[in-house]
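Translate sequence into structure tokens.
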Amino acid sequence: MEKPDWIVVANPARARVLEQGAGPVRYAHVADLVPVESRLKGVQAEGFRGGSEGGDRARHAEGVGPGRRRAPDAPPECEQDHFAREVAHVINDGVARGRCAGVTLVACDPFLGQVTAHLDGQTRKAVRRALPGDFSLPGNDELARRLQQG
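Result follows.
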């Protein structure tokens, strides 16, 4: 059976990994990613602060302790680079495990360059197209139309 191609549509706030299929369902969902910092802000908003049971979670959400991902005062560019690494890791893993034959990467500038910089050699060879643009909001039909134009 032939391996499908992946379409990765990303911006600094969200990334979708889709598997290109045939027939009426053109794209199947593989993964939805959001930056760790966004997930942690949600944890903070849910009130995980202090107390014996929520203390560890609160420290992790605030960037303190063994699960720390970044300094609490890290600039937005640093946050974007961390997210670009996460997105690239998912793509690298998909190629290495043989889950996809090729990758079309669509992301806004400069995020496209950040993700591409974190792709390993094997994955770079599997990239069929890298298109600048923010296609993160359109539905699958609109995405297909835009990809045909690009």
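Note: The chain has a mean pLDDT of 76.
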